Amino acid sequence: MTKNIFIATAEPYSGKSIVALGLVNMLLGKTRKVGYFKPIINYDPKEKKDVHIQTIVDYFSLPVNYDETYALTRQEAMRQLEGESQGQMMDTIISKFKKLEENYDFTVIEGSDFVGEGAAFEFEANVSIAKNLGAPAIIVVSGEGKTTAQIVNSVFTMLRNFEAREVQVLAIVANKVKQDQAADVKELLTLQLPKNAILAVIPEDKGLLNPTMKEIYENLGGNLLFGEEYLSNQVDNFVTGAMNVPNFLRHIKDNVLIVTPGDRGDIIIGSLQANISTNYPKVAGIVLSAGSIPEEPIIRLIEGSQTVVPIISVNTGTFQTIAEIASIKSRITTDNTKKIQLAIDTFDKYVDVQALDQKIVTFTPEGITPHMFQYQLGKWAKSEIKHIVLPEGDDERVLKAAARLISQEIVNLTILGDASSIAAAVKRLGLDLDLNKVRIINPAQSEFYDDYVETLYELRKNKNVTMEMARDLMTDVSYFGTMMVYKGHADGMVSGAVHTTQHTIRPALQFVKTKPGISVVSSVFFMCLPDRVSVFGDCAVNPNPTAEQLAEIAISSAESSIRFGIEPRIAMLSYSSGTSGEGADVDKVRKATEIVKQKRPDLKVEGPIQYDAAVDPVVGKQKMPNSEVAGQASVLIFPDLNTGNNTYKAVQRETGALAIGPMLQGLNKPVNDLSRGCTVDDIFNTVIITAIQSQNN
């Protein structure tokens, strides 16, 4: 079951607050702890609080603090989007949302409002947020001022955009549709939407659309002269009081707002009398234009009246005042319980609540986005802090990564090298690295040196390693770091920024050795593509694996995939798909696939299969229509190192994907190798996955 749902629109004033109120009300009937989150709010809370958030939280008495309900202000979000810092924006949103989500059984997420500058960025940002939060969507389209064709086109444009990003849409709401269009809109959409789609067409309702006197007062910014207790009056019509009284009275309609200059005492008194007369409709309020107020006798008459509607004085002229009133968009506010209840009743009336509830119960998010993956990695690592050794303390990138790791309290670290040199480098680089929080060891001067030498000698003497050779080897940082892991003085090791792959992993192969039942050490990269994370193996260790080794690599990669929250759908890659190809290379992949099926019948595996058929849903369906893997593979196993290494680098460079790894799999304890061209981010991420690996040991 999903734990969240995203309410999205592509235009301002769509009426998504009706959906939000109805949805929260529905959920509170099923679970006690419902959270509310709006990733991007319009104003700095110090200046003005978000109306939607306040209404939802206050009306339902949700146990959530205002500061927890949002991640960024609109200004902050636009600044990051325009500065091409969408990744930073998304990380902030995910981090804030996950902290909130942990405390609730279900969280309703409301998309942004599309008011002000930057609306061009906004729709794509909302789709991306829904994708990254793993939330299915309810899309809301406004019918206000649109033809039937325009409403239908708006629905399908939104639907296509969400589906293109693999965000599942649970329901479509066409809101504020004119009464005489509603039947046609419903019929046309029902004919074209999938049969299982939940569709709600909500006709426009004056009770929801029209503003209250309080909203008019706040928007016009005038002076309230009388009638504060009636500010909740709803305004359904307005008229200009610029004619004689008998003529004016003919224009009064129910819940009318009268706009007239303040010196028109006859219109003012006539309006107040009409309001208390059973022969005339109710008057909502009066706005006095042009900065004038009634003369003293009129004021005295009003003060002595028992029932007085709100009377507001403004400085603007009559026509400008009317234009400003006409442009006011009503918002459902905390104090307007009548409108809140109407919104909930409207939702219940037009939305198939039972069908929506069933979809929520059965929805399971598919896949994981790169931002979610990285957030989850940090969370996993922090859940059980592990001790990682970094042998290459003389490399600036290692020290920079160490500073980030320590400041975020993700791991405990030992850095190998000369303490004074490392301290000098930290100072020179201006790093915020508290050296009291890391352990720095010079191998040759370590208290463990003699013990490590003795242990290495005992482990390798039957391989012709002498005591003198053991002493020499133990001054090597790779051997010393690996021995720390072997002896339990560290939980894992990350090296290779300076040293070769062989230099890094040779000691591990010599005495850490492989897990029982594993004959081959292999590697995977977590390829963080724009909208998903895939596992690539083996791209770093085995030049030309046999069919048996390839099968073992596939099984190890699937287990790594599961450990890191990615559902494994294994594609055994080749230059041919299915039974079409022949040759030794294809036969090897075919045989490896059969071995995987025999050893692990619980795993979804397909092979041989070409890369495009493995990852492209359209090609996959064409070439292998009955496959559970084709078009949606998450674990891609390459037939040899040449293919794997070149492919991961090509994908990384051409798509801008983040490649985390390589992560070695099959060893008794985690030792991971870096590329000598690695970045600080690469080291940072590899240390985190090493810490997570060590949690299983």
UniProtKB/TrEMBL annotation:
It comes from Arcticibacter tournemirensis. Its main location: cytoplasm. It catalyses: acetyl-CoA + phosphate = acetyl phosphate + CoA. Homohexamer. Keywords: Acyltransferase, Cytoplasm, Transferase. Its EC number is 2.3.1.8. PANTHER family: PHOSPHATE ACETYLTRANSFERASE (PTHR43356:SF3). Involved in acetate metabolism. InterPro entries: DRTGG, P-Actrans_bac, P-loop_NTPase, P_AcTrfase, P_AcTrfase_dom1, P_AcTrfase_dom2, Phos_Acetyltrans/Butyryltrans, PTA_PTB. The N-terminal region seems to be important for proper quaternary structure. The C-terminal region contains the substrate-binding site. Transmembrane segments: none annotated. This is Phosphate acetyltransferase. Pathway: Metabolic intermediate biosynthesis; acetyl-CoA biosynthesis; acetyl-CoA from acetate: step 2/2. Residues 215-326 form the DRTGG domain. In the C-terminal section; belongs to the phosphate acetyltransferase and butyryltransferase family. In the N-terminal section; belongs to the CobB/CobQ family. It holds the Pfam family AAA_26.
